[in-house]
Fold this sequence. Notes:
The complex is a heterodimer of chains A (290) and B (317). Chain A has 290 residues and is of the alpha/beta class. Chain A folds into 2 domains: 2-97, Elongation Factor Tu (Ef-tu), domain 3; 109-268, Rossmann fold (3-Layer(aba) Sandwich). In chain A, 22% of the residues lie in helices and 30% in strands. Chain A contains 7 helices and 16 strands. Chain A has helices spanning 25-30, 77-83, 119-131, 151-157, 176-187, 198-211, 264-268; strands at 2-14, 17-23, 36-39, 51-54, 57-58, 67-72, 90-97, 109-115, 135-142, 160-165, 172-173, 191-195, 215-218, 234-238, 245-249, 256-257. In chain A, helix 5 (176-187) runs parallel beside helix 6 (198-211). Chain A is globular. In chain B, helix 3 runs parallel beside helix 4, helix 4 (148-161) runs parallel beside helix 5 and helix 6 (225-238) packs parallel to helix 7. Chain B is globular, with a radius of gyration of 19 Å. The two termini of chain B are 38 Å apart. Chain B has helices at 2-8, 81-96, 109-119, 148-161, 177-187, 225-238, 253-262, 271-275, 279-294, and strands spanning 10-12, 15-17, 21-23, 45-47, 64-67, 70-73, 100-104, 125-131, 135-136, 142-143, 166-170, 191-194, 198-201, 203-204, 209-210, 216-220, 244-247, 266-269. An 8-stranded parallel beta barrel of chain B has the order 3-4-7-8-11-12-17-18, surrounded by 6 helices. A 4-stranded antiparallel sheet of chain B has the order 5-6-16-13, with no helix packed on it. Chain B has 317 residues and is an alpha/beta fold. Classes of the chains: A alpha/beta (290), B alpha/beta (317). At the A-B interface, strand 14 of A face strand 5, strand 6 and helix 8 of B.
Amino acid sequence: MKRVKAEILSVRKLGGYQSLTLVSPEIAERARPGQFLAVAMPDDRRFLLRRHFSIHQASRRGGWAGAIEFVFNPSGAGTEWLAEMKAHQFLDVIGPLGKAFAYPQRLNRCLLVSEGYGASSIYFLAQELRARGKRVDMIVGAESEQFVLKPIEGKRLSQTIEIVTADGSIGRRGAVADALAPVAEACGAQVVYAAGPRRMLRAVAEFCMERQIPSQIVVEEQMACGLGLCFTCVVPVIRKDGSGYDNLRACTDGPVFNPARVLWDRWMGSEPTMLPTPPEGFPVVRSWPG
Amino acid sequence: MAGVKGSLAVDLNGVGFPLPVLAASGCFGTGRELAGLAGLHRLGGIVTRSLTYNATKGSPTPRVAESPSGIVSSVGIQNPGVRGFIAEELPRLQRIGLPVLVSVAGSSLEEYIRVTRALEGHPGIVALEVYLSCADDERDGMPFYSRIDRIAEVVGAVSRLSRFPVFVKLPALLPSLLETARACVRAGAHGLTLIDAVPGMVIDVGKLRPRLGSATGGLSGPAIRPIAVGAVFEVASALRDVPIMGVGGIATGEDAVEFLLAGAWAVQVGTAMLVNPSAPAEIVQGILRYLKTKGLGSPADLRGRLRLIRSPGEAAP
């Protein structure tokens, strides 16, 4: 984890998203898929908290060595300010933060599922998995065509890709959850990775638990510091021995979690007072990787 | 550098800090998160997150929402319980080598007493800070701070039981802050921490929902600084011998100087640390620069130096 003043190398519009590429060899060297950056907001203290973004790309070699890219959807005060930034301006960035995805050792066929800008960390992961000789298949979901992140890049990174949009403007019309079973069967998925909104993650978790497929998810939780100081970004995670659950910080204990150990009912928060503590305890979950 | 540190040391009637800037409660994690990032030696001390007797899971998420120049948050005192803290976190904090103040919480008088007892005699702890914003189970869930007699009861019990000096963290918006502060001192408090987060709420009008999982939370950050400075001034002007730690929206050296001029003996930094982990070090530098330009030797020299506007004809002291 390093704190740097990083120069903006380029600003690009990618459909509904905005992409920023920064120069930071210190961060690029260490960055792994699943990890994130904490970007400071302007000094005028109108809005205070750093914004947190998955790392989309970190170049360690070649002409772009030391460059690091993240993608965001300009939809709030902080991200709109970021979208106005120009090349050669500087950002105060801390990173890389959080735990990265684990790579399977024996298993070979990986299914990568993403929705919205969840694709941002998934593409980085696809690259690293392929570099390790793994087969990568993808499901990429979004609201509409403009929110499908770099579809051509997605095709290049995967053996097969299934694009699913809510309005059918590109790929198949429908939900990511509906594409899971057919795609997983077609590609013979042995490992599943997922990134995106909670409801989609839960569908992936249930699918993988039912079929006993080892999986990892990266969560998008609202964070204040991203450094493990404040305990605001917690996810309820069942203990390894099944004796209960702990609220773990998405920033330092995650953002990558084993979905089989997430206490979904509690995390989805429909009943915030509900405290399920079954008398027989929680099921003991096999730890990663399968 | 040693000389510089020496000149910035503060003494709160026997509780000494090498620097006048401490990490506020709930903003320092568990002691290992900032390894390698912040200049930890540039802190005067650490106030731990608030501890209850048994482990507490905390509030539902989301736990934080932004507001203009502030954040509204509700962590719901998630903590490993006082025994878990002593086993795991205290040794790590001790290794950092800074004075540790332990924040004590509870949902009943008995719980405050049990937490205080459990902490007795542990090396590395220099003082306790009593946190009074938890719901009081014996008073229908009203916060402890809502009644002076209840505050006095809790503070009295903790101060009598503990050999550590006890600071009391008070919110600013009380019917009479000064009366409450006096009651704390009478009950045995060594000093005060002013102020606690201001109760608040942010609503997502699009979804017709509160932005926090627990609906309401505490506002902190620069938005509450004037409230905090005012509270420190009110209490410090009346209780000149009672050490006060000022806290609320401090992010720069100048912010800290405001508190010291208002009468604080030291300051704590919370929200700013979440954004900029080296904020305390920068604030210390800022205080040092200010003292130099004013030709003063120590942060204590700022106390009572505030020039108040007098009505014409009134004699200068």
